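Ticket #401: bound-state structure for nicotinamide-adenine-dinucleotide.
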Amino acid sequence: MKVAIIGQGYVGLTISAFAAQYFDVVGFDSNQKIVDQLNSGVSHIEGVESSTIKKWIKDSRYKATSQGIDIRDCEIVVIAVPTPLTTDRKPDLGYIEAACKTVGQNISKPGLVINESTSFPGTLRGFIKPTIEKYSPKVIEHLYAISPERVDPGRGDFNQKNTPRLYAGLTQEASDKTREFYSKFCDVLVEVSSPEVAEAAKLFENTFRQVNIALVNEFAQIAHSLGISVYETLDAANTKPYGFMKFSPSAGVGGHCIPVDPTYLAEVAEEHGAPATFIRRANDVNLEMSEYVVRRVAEDNGGDLQGKSVLVVGVAYKPNVADVRETSAELVIQHLRSRGAVVSWHDDIVGEWKGEKSAPLVGADITVVVIMHDSVDEKNILASAPYVFDTTGKVKGAKGL
Ligand SMILES: NC(=O)c1ccc[n+]([C@@H]2O[C@H](COP(=O)([O-])OP(=O)(O)OC[C@H]3O[C@@H](n4cnc5c(N)ncnc54)[C@H](O)[C@@H]3O)[C@@H](O)[C@H]2O)c1
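RESOLUTION: The complex was predicted; output attached.
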């Protein structure tokens, strides 16, 4: 069985590496640089080892391509392309449309099309199917299904195999074939009654996290104003064995999921006349955290950051990855610079970002820790500046939330 995976990023390459154990995989990506790198056996994604890619290439189980024609005889197509927001923060289905065009123009026999990209309920039925049909030169009766991806890149304990996978087809046959496909490399499969339920469940999972992160971020501000430790208070609440789940405060939320997916849900809710009050407010609270952090730093430093050298530690969106999408460090840096601070950043995993390079962890007036990778030494952070503000709760002896 030949499988095409459209998009060879975090989701697509991870799924390719698992699927290649059982199928011949064609990894289609529109970025030629990524394709060339993958075909030379080099992985660009944490959690997918280059040695694994090399092995699948050697065994003729995997090939990357940017040529649509190479997917023409695939029987299963998995779509795993970005679903970001437009500049006015609306769902951007442009990448999905381009992926559908590739599928429509190249797959000539009926097959199974599975979407793993995150999007609002109705995307499979109302957008993907008609878009593929629009670009197909002839009428082809494909089967369509959704199986939203839940992978957490860089995580060791949960992966494609042991994370339960939701799925639903537009028809029962599509559901059954989807189950057959994933059951080869996933232990627990959960069928739901419609693609819309699966699409909504994925959005709600991330909305749950977004709202709870916003709540704890707001609580961090309340705790500070009351003169109590937010961390001690959360640990105390967390001793309750039921009805409480601990979330930690931060300088905001980053990544392509939590700051983005809830907006997909809010947009579709409001289109249907339903309120999305919590989602909208949570997004604002999380975005405002960067300004709050910088205000606290300024207050502790005589109210003025003009000309001060500030080192921001950690510009990835979360620990131990190089991914900088929607990173809260960007807003922190913007607010610091708008107050006249001379800002550099240290992040050896990211290395280079926005035309700037990671600076050494020494010699600043002020250090602000946004993300702490395991490779960064707490002692070096404390030695890097006379004043250290830590938003992670990990640097003992620093000022913090
Ligand atoms: N990364 C995660 O942790 C994660 C987890 C769950 C769900 N998701 C969702 O999965 C989807 C993919 O996310 P990702 O993190 O893998 O993105 P990514 O940016 O890491 O990878 C996407 C890849 O798709 C390629 N691409 C873009 N347009 C294309 C096209 N028309 N044809 C072929 N390739 C194309 C890009 O070059 C890139 O390599 C998104 O909807 C995302 O929200 C991601």
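RESOLUTION NOTES: The CA atoms of residues 209 and 258 lie 7 Å apart.
TICKET STATUS: resolved
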